[in-house]
User: Fold these one by one.
Assistant:
Number 1:
Amino acid sequence: MDCLFCKIANGEIPSKKVYEDSYILAFHDINPEAKVHVLVIPKEHIPSCDFVNAGNSFNVSYIFEKIPHIAKEAGITNGYRVITNCGEDACQSVKHLHFHIIGGEKLPEHIR
Ligand code: 5GP
Ligand code: ZN
C-alpha cells in the first residue's frame, strides 16, 4: 500500500523514533510546529478517525495509554497538546491515523 506512515511504521522510510512496540510507533515530526512535536501512529493502517470502529479502536485507547510516557521520553515536562486532523477541512495531509503531541514550550491558546 502506498502510505507514507505505513512505510515509516515498517522501517522502509527512516524516522527519528521516540517509542515503538508491537502496536504503535512514535517519531519526531519532520516539520515541527513547536520545540517538541511528535507523531504517534498505530502500525495498523487506519486512514483517519472516520475509520475507527469496534474492531480497531483498541489502537486508539492503547495510544492514549502510552501518550504520557511518550511525551516524557520526548522531553516534555510541563504539559502538551494532542491533536488529530480528520479529513479535508481539518487539512489532514497523511491518510493514516496519527496523533500530534505538541509541547516543550508555552503554546498559544490555539494552534492549527
Ligand atoms: P496532518 O497534516 O496529516 O495532520 O499531519 C501530517 C504530519 O506529518 C505533518 O505535521 C508533517 O510535517 C508530518 N510529516 C509528513 N511527512 C513526514 C515524513 O516523511 N516524516 C516525518 N517524520 N513527518 C512527516
Ligand atoms: Zn498507512
Number 2:
Amino acid sequence: MDIVICKSKEQASYMVAAYIDRAIRKNPRTVLGLATGSTPILMYKELIRRHKECGLDFSQVHSWNLDEYLGLEGTHPASYRYFMNEQLFDHINIDKANTHVPDGMATDYEAAAAAYEEGIRADGGIDIQVLGIGSDGHIGFNEPATSLSSRTHVQTLMLGTRQDNARLFFGGDLAAVPTRAITMGTGTVLDSRVAILLAFGKGKAPAIAGAVEGAISHMNQASALQLHRDAKFFIDEEAASLLKHADFYKAVYADSDLRSLEA
Ligand code: GLP
C-alpha cells in the first residue's frame, strides 16, 4: 500500500488527477472506476481543467461507477448518474455511451448486478479504481459485515451512512434517502489493476486508521485493500491524524516516484 499524506485536499486531488492524466495519455482507452460523494469533486474539477486547458482527451476512455441508490432515476438530482454527469461527464469529451452507472431502476436486481460484472469483464477490467471511504470504512456501498469477496449486489444501507448522505437529499431529508443501493462488491474493487482511495478531514480518521493499520476485517471494508496488488491512499493530514506510523509513510513517500505527481 502506498500511503501519501498530503498538505491539503487540493494537493491530493491534483496528484490523483495527474496520475489519471498520465495513464490516459499512455493508454487512451483506459477503463476508469469512478466514485461519487464530496471527496472526489476537486479531483474531477482538476481533470476537467486538464481537458479544457491541457488537451487531456477522454474520447476513448470508458468508465464504471461504483454504485447507485435503488429506486432513483438517473434524472433524480441525488442519483449518482446525475452527480457524475454534473461533476464530470458533461464537461469533458467522454462518450456517454461508454460511461456506466449501475441501474437503480432495474426490476431484476440480480440480473442487473450480474450484467454489470460481466460488462466490466468484457470491457477488459478496471485499470484505475477511484474510491472514497465512508465513516464506517465502506467502499462503494459495501457496509460492515459484507463479504470481502463480494461481487456487484444489492446492499441495505446502515442508518449512519444514510444520515451522512442525507445532506444531498433536499438539504437533509433522511426519509428521502433510499434504504438500499446497488454496488460493486469489495471483491470487484480488488480486481482493479490500481485502486486509489481519497480521504479528507477528521471524520475519516478512524476509518483510515482501521483500513491502513487495523487487521483485515469485514467490519472495515477498506481494510481489504491491504490485499490489493496496487492500492494507493491519498489523504490529508486530518484523515491521517490517527495513523501511528505517519512519519514512516512520509519517509517511504520521500523515496518514491509518486513525488513526481506533485504540482
Ligand atoms: C457514499 C458513496 C461512497 C463514498 C462515501 C463518502 O456512501 N457510496 O462511495 O465514498 O459516500 O462520501 P463523501 O466523499 O461525501 O464523504
